[in-house]
User: Fold these one by one.
Assistant:
Number 1:
Amino acid sequence: MIIFLLSCLIGWFYFDSSTQYNQHAQESDHTHDILIKYASVAKLSLEKLIAMGEIVRTGQVQTPQLKAEKAQVLRQTLFDIRQILLHKLNDNKHISINLELQAYDQISQKVERILATNNEIKLLVAENKLSQAKKLFSLLQKQNVDTQFNLLIDKAVKQEQQQAELIRKSVNQLYHTNNKILLTALAVMSLFTLFTFWYFWRRINLSTKQLLWATQEFTAGKLNHRIAPQNDFEFQFLAKSLNNMAEQLAEQQYQLNLAKRSLEEKVQQRTYDLELSNKRFAQVDQQRRQFLADIGHELRTPLTIIRGESEVLLRSQSEEVSEYQQVLACIIDEVKHTTALIEDLMLVARSSAGQLTLQRSQFNISQLLNELFDTYQRKALEKQQQLVLNSMVTDLFIEADERRIRQVLMILLENALIYSKSRAQNEIQIHVQKEFIAIKIIDQGIGITDNEQQQIFERFYRGNRSKAKGSGLGLPVAKAIIDAHDGHITLKPNEHSTGSTATILLPWHFKEKVEI
């Protein structure tokens, strides 16, 4: 921009110098023309004076037509001088031009007087009044018109010479001034070029150092380093690209660290899950061992009873039929108990293998609950407990396996009476929902802990219920039956009292499972 301004300044000086040179050249031409024309005026005027002397001396007018033409040329020359002076006055309104005009007017007056006297002398000679003509010419000589005219011509010439000298001095001054300006402009441009070179070298060097330092920082892993904004577009674009690259690398590194931490957390979680699984497997194995021991005990007891009763019967020599019937009835009861235990084991095994079959039909579950309520209300009274049925529905039909649903409800009611103390109040509730029927059996027994809620339906688990009578298969059997009905069963502690609540959710209709 500065170079452009300097170039424009030099161009302006060149144009102004050219204009001044042209102006001085025109003024010089005008001065030269004026000098030539003043010389012509002096020559023609002198010729007029000589011609008047010849007319007075000879008394004759020679070649009057030629003399008239010279008078016309003289006037035309004066007119040309005036035009040139007026032109100079329009171009340059200077006081010297006014002085030249004054000198021109005086010369013009003298010329007109010479011409007028010349005409009067010619008329007097033509009228043979030679003596008057001589007197008029003598008067003209006495007034020193020729001397005054020559002085005026000399004055005008000197003025034009002075004007020419001023033009020469102006041209010389313009020449020296232009040389100084040109040299100064060249010096300024040279200094500016050196400064520009140093300035851009310094900016490029600083930007290059910043970029080099940034790359070293990035290489060292310091991706939070950022390059300061650059002034130059190229370095600004490069710095922005490097900063974006650093941001992307930092983001990728952050994502990698997140993935690494996530992987470590997953490994820790998998390790924890594996350890927990191992603990659970150990617990399951321990429960299996305990279960086998309990089953062995449960089977040993009825088998021992059967064997003992059979041996007693064999050793007995009684012929009483009633005695034999009593022993056989005891044996049959123990066989039934053993058969029920084995059936529970087979049911849980089939459910785990997905082979549990149901005999579905529509039945009135309200009627089933009423029947079970009547049965277990008597048992509750025997244990000095109360059982309440809270149902607002009299006829409620669902599609399910009635025998298996009865088995589940009996398991839950048995547990409620077994684990509740005397004077406890147990309750059966039934609720109708949009897609499910909810049956709740609420007891006031020993309750369960939060940890037991996750294990209470597992096989072989008995928890704090291990002191109670039973094989520990009741709840697993109930869960297997409810799961086969696409339902849901939970056992949770009561919020505001002791004991627990068993909740069964059964769908209204059974949905056939389509194998793909």
Note: The CA atoms of residues 81 and 254 lie 98 Å apart.
Number 2:
Amino acid sequence: MTDSHNSGQHKDREAAAAEVRRMWQPTPSWTQPDPNQVPERDPEPADEADEKPDALSQEFPGDSWSQPASQHAPWSQPQTPPPAPAQSGPSWTQPATESTSAWTQPASEPDEVDETEKATADTDGGDDQHGSSAEGGTTGAAPVFGGSSFSGSGFSGGPAAGGPAAGGQAGPPPAAGGQAHGGQQLSPAAQHFFPQGIPGQNAPQQQREVSYRTDELIQALPLPREAPAERGIRSALRLRPGSTERMERIARATAATAFRRPVTIVVANPKGGSGKTPTTLLLAGALGQARGGGVVAWDNNELRGNMHLRTHDTNSRSTVTDMLQAMPMLTQPDARLGDVAAYLRHQVAGQYDVLTSATTTYAQIEAKDFDQIHRLLSRFYKVLVIDTGNNEGSSNWREAMKAADALVIPIKWKSLSCAAAVQMLEELDNQGPEAQRLIRRAVIAVSNGPGDVNKEVEKQLRSYFESRAAAVVDIPTDQHIAAEGPLDHSALQPTTRRAALELAAKVSEQITIALNVPR
């Protein structure tokens, strides 16, 4: 019993190996023969040397390449059932719906295969029953490795391979892991020895999972294309902007930074005539044009400033004194921007509003007045640009420094203007850590009028201001500013507008740093 069992297992391995080798062998495509065709006469016997099998075929009797060319296919034999219970040929009673693909047959099928299968079925037909149909419900022995050679075309005629059993019941589908070369299915017996399929066969690549996360979908979107140039020949040809125009766009985007709260910019230099008011208006106009409004320029002179002389008188001649008198009404919860704008001057070209100082000396602005006005303007405006006076000791001047998020120091390359700025920086340096941080974030705005440049002063002090402040911005001489009339941004030279925009971008960068650094 043991010898018979071991012999059956050995034959199963040989039959499974023969099946795998036959599947790897390219087979021609055959068409289904006519069952009523008269079998052809046997050809003349070949030479004895041709009929004698070689050593390889003796060792592997199931290999198809050892079959002589004179042998016939199984279906060419007479339609008489073989004496053995196992049938190695296809079942001709297969329904037409299951034979959609072309039937393929190896070039030759040796008779030794039938004899080997018969011997295996007879040996194991007792206790082991390796060749019986395990799930088909039949008692007849089936081929060890699935039987029919028609499996090469996607169809297997034996019961174990999914074909109809002798009892009329369809066998189970082949196992999913038994993929052979070219998409063929291994029989259950071959899957026992090759559970992972044919060695060397490429596994199907898994399809990449599609992600529907919002951040990944947004990152997958293409970047917006850069807008064409707006000036010069590049604009006419719809080309990309040049380096100058591209830098101007970057500065405009930086100046339009959305801050998380209202911010205050203070323009200060104790020396009169150093360019505080023009610098304040240039900065407010550049920010207003970049941001589309929401900017107010405030003349915080304790007595009488001159901002009312440098701006257009649009629809209001009210001053800070009039606003202080209307403060009970303006501080109500239902107060609106239109109520506050009645006391301001709107500058159309720069898209900003102006709050002028008192025109008389009878009303002096104190610290408490500064606090009330600062809180009111912070409710309705996002950016406050404050022009200061010449008295560092006044209470409203000191309150402005305490509320400042950024400091702009206008100078001219003249001895008195630069000396006053240096003294102010030294005084602020002694006011504590907050004032020191404000100095490090300061921006120097150099605005020279005609004949105001002293080359020796510039040579000695430029490096000093560059080391103490965050940046130094040069504003070129503009005749419109030097005329000392109302400042209209549309009348400025292009180089002056670009310099003002650069100043606004530098200040916005320092404000962003100040808001992100914890105090």
Note: The radius of gyration is 49 Å.
Number 3:
Amino acid sequence: METTAVSAVYTGVRRPRPSSLVLGLVRRHRSSYLVMLLATLAASTLSSGWIQAAFSIGHRDGAPPAGQLNAYERLIQAGGEDAARQMAVMAAVICAFISIILVISSVGFLIETRRREYAMFRLAGASPRRVRRLALGEFMVPLAVADLAGSLSGCLLSGAFVKVILDSGIYGVRLAGRPNLAGTLIAFVSLMAACLVGVWFAARRIGSVSPIEALNPSGRTAAKKKIGPVRILLALAGLTGGMVLVLAPVDGMDVETRILTSTACLLTAVAALAPLLVTAVGSVIGLPLQLATRGSGLLARQRARRESRASGAIALPVILMLVIMSGILTLARAGWTSQTVSQYAPVQAEIIVTADADAAGALDRTLVTSPDVDSAVTYRSEDWQVSGPGVDRNSTTILTMVPLRGQTPGARPADTIMPTFIKGSPGDLGPGRVAVTRQWAQNNLEGKEPLGQTLILTGKDDKTQRFTVAAVVDMGPTGQSSQLVMGPESGLQIEPPQAKGLTTLVRLKAGSDPGRASRDLDGRLRQDPTASGARARTRREHMDYDARRSAHVQQGLPRMTAGAAVLASIFLVQSCAIVASERRLQNGRLRDVGVSRLPLAMASIWESAIDVLAATVLAALVMLAVICGTYRQMDTALAGIRIPLPYGYFFGMALVGLAAAMLTSGLYTWISSQPNRSGL
């Protein structure tokens, strides 16, 4: 029987010591404890590793001395450290958040499986308070050991996690991960507090149920999780907020904030109603399995419908894994796409050509000989260190503006694809003169009049040259995000620290077809061996290309969130193993009436599949609502481009979760259903 660990509790002869009761429960459920401790160990290890990586980056561990770097390299190192610090903190927060939520959920679920033992304690005379203390004693020491071991093991991963962040598109930065006591303590305390909170509240729920109800052989009252008023209020608030953000326009809210807020609201609603939603969706999904597999499918569907706590414990890690990781990737890519749309919306160029920095000559020859080109302006992009009186040293991208020469100006002059001059004119950009944007002047000159200010450009090998601000411009018509602009005769005498590339805006003659003209230009540039990396696209094609490029540029985000996905997978496996372990008594009774091991294992496999598929459907509905709201906010009629949504990540993670759940449940049930283990 399940109550063998408490058969001698509170007899008239003597009271057993609390330690003996705790040890009896631990021995009785040692297989469940082993799975839970391994999951807690993994959660604390990953959380500790990311937290210590954030501390290492914040302390600049492994950074080279400033004397070994030139001025530009020092700026790149400082900027890269800031970016790495933000990524590390975000990864640590995500990983710790997932760990805390899943630890609380899994510990609470494991305590729910002890309801019969705790009911026997209550019938033997123990008070609800004493039951809570026994639950704390039962879970505290094993979880503390696993948490401490994992927090210390995270020291071994900090260096690898720092390397993952630096390999995610942060170039020219040298850092190293080192063990940090503060990171270890934060990981240990946060997860230990989560474990104790989960134990305490789950034990309080157990104590609120009468012993007779908890001892109900069907377990229906205890296993069927009720939707209380707090959950209903959370669900209503989350659903209302999410639908408002999805359907109604919200002035002053950018795409990133809208996606983040709507995802959080809808995820809250789904999590609050998970026992009800997973059971309802799982019942529908399980119907074809029941009809196709008969006995095992029927048993799986009935268990999924009746055991809402078990279904919720399996579904919650899947929902968190899919929604959080897909939501973060959607947020980043939608934000990039929104910026691309707003950046190129004012541009009047029909064709945009991109090329490497050394392709300027080939690009000019091709454009001059093209019968469709009316005018063009090439912007050469270079990174410089900029300073000056009252201007802090900063790394700034400077554009050199070169209008196409050798052609008679047509009906579409080049000034329509040049910056708008707020102060000064293009003729003011002579040798030693530079134009700045109004935003740059406001951020760097502290309210001073920009015209006449002196800027010092530091190039390669720390050589410097002085320039005078001669104009203030608006870069809107160019689609470029740079803050400083030079003319073709700038008199620049020093080499830039880093050359980035060329962007050419092309106006076509009246009546020219942009699609045909872009294909002609692109074909001629491809045939020219000196046109390194040159590609010609229509404006809409360039916007679509730039939006799709976000998947490559933002490659660090999947790596950052991979730890959270691994954690969710670990707790998914744990939940499946605990569910299979706690159903050994039911399986033993079925074995006693002649049911073989294979149908029992298949029923466990189908039950896990139903729960994971139900969670996938709920996560897909959340993401679908978020994506619909995103497209409503973006001006798709103007853009005509698509957000590169992370379909591959979503369905790939769903398949991995499905396979892990089915494999764990099937193997554990097959092994635990051996004849000599039935009902033991």
Note: The longest strand covers residues 373-388.
